[in-house]
Fold this sequence. Notes:
Helix content is 33%, strand content 25%. It folds into two domains: 6-155, Rossmann fold (3-Layer(aba) Sandwich), CATH 3.40.50; 156-282, Hypothetical Protein Tm841, Chain: A,domain 3, CATH 3.30.1180.10. It is an alpha/beta fold.
Amino acid sequence: MTARSVAIVTDSTADLPPALASSRSIAVVPLTLNFDGRSLLDGVDITPGEFYRKLPSAATHPTTSQPSPGRFAETYNELLATHDAIVSIHISEKLSGTYDSAKQAADMTDPQRVFVVDSQVVSMSLGLVVLGAASLASGGANAEAIVEKVEALRPFVHTYFSVATLEFLRRGGRIGRASAMLGSVLQVKPVLCIREGVVEPLERVRTFERALNRIIELAKAVDRGKGVCAVVGHADAEKDAEKVGKALEPIAETLMIQPLGPVVGAHGGPGVVGVGCYPADLLPLGIKTSRTGASAP
């Protein structure tokens, strides 16, 4: 066994920069993007930059599929050879079949040593929860303690975002209760959240700039006096994400700005900007990264 007794696994919808995931010993199992007649592993066969460049000229709307139980089982078996247990944390089961695949894989390998957790969130927020779990694992916590902490953290993890258009959420079947906004005037921009594992509308504002300002206000309100742990995610909208990040910097114990991966981007569409955050006093991470996703000194 290694000194690190618990391995942390997630899926590619956590949108963690590969270098950061690697440095924290987080194993990432990719979903598949079906795009322009090809099946591509998310973040492996196609990068966010490549995806957003090609998306405007795509002949058909991209679709996605969860990893097979066999792919998860392969990862689990490799890690069980060198770890006491695995905590595998995934995208909300109401948004993807990924959690179910992971559960099947746990049953196929060693259900006594593989703990599968539904994060009830996605993307920026999932990444934060996974980083928190990795921090606990590196500190020597056992699998049961990590699962307990992650489940206790879930109600305090907030996801706020806006989209340039609701069309991608609609086409991909992930629009949830925000479908009520579909008939609204085109100029109105939605402020959305993820609540109980699904996309929900919060409010609508007149411009995208106002939507960004509202997202900033909502994220700041999460602070309980000790700052926030936050990830700002964007789909080919780096300038807007930088604006949000700059506004949150004064209260951020942890702050990362990173692109949304191809699978998440396929459902949100280009122009998405959002924040995943929780009160830093619950589980401080101490991570500040540059725009490239590399750890800042």
